[in-house]
Design goal:
Layout lengths: L5 E6 L5 H7 L4 H8 L1 E4 L8 H5 L6 E7 L2 E3 H13 E7 L1 H5 L1 H4 L6 H9 L15 E5 L2 E5 L2 E6 L9 E3 L6 H13 L16 H4 L45 H4 L17 H12 L10 H12 L5 H5 L18
Parallel strand pairs: 1-2, 1-3, 3-5, 5-9
Antiparallel strand pairs: 4-8, 6-7
Length: 331
């Protein structure tokens, strides 16, 4: 009986939602097991790093690498799995664009550690200890791998063959990707797969009219109409600047799209796309006879209704954006 192709799923700097999405294949996980040797997944299987190191190069057919690169260990595993894999997939928003971990790029590593362990009202740390290095115990030493100066997405460190967006990717799209890989009918390297090429707005069945927005509101401030476009109701819905393929589950649940599938086909910077879209729908009233200063004041008042530019426009893509963060230069 021929040996089945090997499948690996690795968890770097992420929340674990991508692993849950894999398990959410439900009965189809049995089809995956029948077709592939699911042999490495640190949170589900007991395969050790040394077992991967012992494999011949390219012995793993496919690695789904989820998570951003936050630590030196993440970088080490990225290079190891690149070497051992025939196909390396940036799996999910963290691996593809940095996602939530990459928002730390707006500060320095030292500022981040101080905020977590020292300057924090919920932490009792009179000795001002910041965990680091190696700590010895009778059972063995525990080594904490150092943080990188800035968070990277996977392709900033190693060559990536394909990208699957989502936070996490929708399970049916994961299955579509696995079927495509098993068929051997693969798209060109570098493609984003398991998704569409249009925007979430194209999948959203809400009624869309001419968008003229006078101010934005937060989710908790009102109960949105379930049929009207959420952006037109003043909610910052990222669907207009987000790749489709998820099925628009958020807007169906009466919640705005937060942008987890990243920029649509042909758009490099999701945040810039959203800012441009908002500039075309902003309604600051009749400006006839107003001075430039007065008009600028109205624009400022409008922009003040947007509470968190970075967290809204670059929640999933900061590391891969033109902006990149303020610490150092993007590499």
């Amino acid at each position: 009986m021929p040996e089945k192709p090997k499948l690996a799923v690795y968890w770097a700097a992420s929340c674990g939602g991508c692993e849950i999405a894999v398990v959410n294949l439900h009965e189809k996980i049995l089809d995956v097991d029948a077709a592939m040797d699911f042999m490495f997944c640190p949170c589900l299987l007991d395969t050790k790093k040394k077992d991967i190191e012992a494999l011949p190069d390219r012995a793993i057919a496919v690695t789904l690498f989820n998570g951003a690169l936050r630590t030196e260990e993440n970088v080490e595993m990225a290079h190891l799995l690149r070497r051992k894999s025939q196909i390396l997939v940036a799996f999910g928003s963290c691996a593809k664009g940095g996602c939530i971990p990459a928002l730390a790029n707006f500060t320095t590593k030292d500022e981040l550690l101080n905020a977590v362990y020292l300057d924090n009202p919920s932490v009792d740390n009179p000795a001002a200890v910041i965990p680091s290095g190696t700590t010895g115990f009778p059972e063995g030493d525990i080594h904490l791998t150092p943080l990188l100066e800035r968070v990277k997405h996977l392709a900033q460190e190693v060559e990536v063959d394909y990208y699957i967006p989502g936070c996490p990717p929708e399970s049916e799209q994961i299955w579509n990707v696995i079927e495509t890989i098993l068929s051997g009918d693969l798209p060109p390297k570098g493609s984003t797969i398991g998704c569409g090429t249009l925007t979430v707005c194209d999948d959203c069945d809400r009624t869309k009219e001419e968008k003229r927005i006078t101010a934005f509101r937060r989710n908790y401030e009102f109960y949105p109409d379930r049929k009207a476009c959420l952006l037109e109701q003043g909610l910052l819905c990222m669907g207009i600047a987000t790749r489709n393929g998820c099925g628009a589950p958020c807007t169906k649940a009466n919640m705005p799209c937060t942008g987890c599938y990243g920029a649509p086909e042909g758009i490099r910077d999701q945040g810039a796309k959203m800012v441009a879209a908002l500039g075309s729908v902003m309604d600051i009233g009749d400006t006839t006879g107003l001075s430039e200063k007065a008009i600028a004041g109205r624009v400022d008042d409008f922009l003040k209704t947007i509470p968190d530019y970075a967290g809204l426009f670059y929640k999933y893509t900061l590391a891969s954006s033109t902006l990149g963060g303020r610490v150092g230069k993007q590499t």
